[in-house]
Design a protein that fits this description.
Elements (H helix, E strand, L loop, with lengths): L5 H8 L8 H23 L9 H27 L2 H7 L6 H40 L7 H27 L5 H35 L7
Helix pairs in contact: 2-3, 2-5, 2-6, 3-5, 4-5, 5-6, 5-7, 6-7
Organism: Alkalibacterium pelagium
GO molecular function, one term: catalytic activity
Protein name: Formiminotetrahydrofolate cyclodeaminase
């Protein structure tokens, strides 16, 4: 996947024998959100009206770029995350020892497959941090619309990441481990949705009235 163009990736995504799936696609959507956030910050960096925020803007530029790269890597990680599970299921199971080893490897691989979407949940909150930071600067113009798009993208990523956590955890035989992972994912989704909802209300207020709410 390292050398794929956007067209090549979408072709691969649409093939029945292709490696990437919904989790990988969500990670690329998150990377687009990060890129949009960086664009908004980049537009503001040299404007006199935001001179007081120069340090914050510089930090946002660096953080958004780092997050974009992180999500690009997560897209690749997620695309291959289930392969070890399939390989584990193919291990021999003729003897009790082989069955035990196969079960251990399957469970280990399943936990590994759940890691990319769990990481997406965490890093999605980092994207939300940046969007909140930029809205507090009370910027003007059509770039606020791009900030809304970035916000909507993050909401989609949060929902998708939880789906991809639970599709894996359902295969875990250890109920305690399964419940712990699912609880963590659902909590991060719930908190993220609350933050996204507040951001949407705030940005929608500006888009409708061309001014930011006093409470921001």
């Amino acid at each position: 996947m390292n050398e794929l163009t956007i067209e090549g990736y979408l072709t691969e995504l649409g093939k029945k024998e292709g490696t990437p799936g919904g989790g990988s696609a969500a990670a690329y959507i998150a990377s687009m959100s990060a890129a949009l956030i960086r664009m908004v910050a980049d537009i503001q960096k040299d404007k006199k009206a935001y001179a007081d925020y120069s340090e914050e803007i510089t930090q946002a530029l660096e953080a958004s770029h780092a997050l974009r790269k992180a999500f690009e890597q997560l897209a690749k990680d997620d695309a291959v995350a289930f392969e070890p599970v399939l390989m584990a299921y193919k291990l021999p199971k003729g003897t009790d020892e082989e069955k035990e080893r196969r079960q251990e490897e399957v469970q280990k691989a399943i936990k590994g497959a759940a890691q990319p979407p769990l990481e997406m949940l965490e890093k999605s909150h980092d994207l939300i941090d940046l969007i909140e930071q930029l809205t507090r600067m009370k910027m003007k113009g059509t770039i606020v619309n791009d900030l809304m798009v970035a916000t909507l993208f993050v909401g989609t990523v949060l929902e998708t990441a939880v789906l991809n956590v639970t599709i894996n955890t359902k295969l875990l035989s250890d109920a305690n481990e399964r419940n712990a992972l699912e609880k963590k994912a659902i909590e991060r989704l719930s908190t993220g949705k609350q933050r996204i909802s507040q951001l949407r209300q705030t940005i929608e207020y500006f888009l409708e009235k061309n001014e930011w709410p006093e409470s921001i």
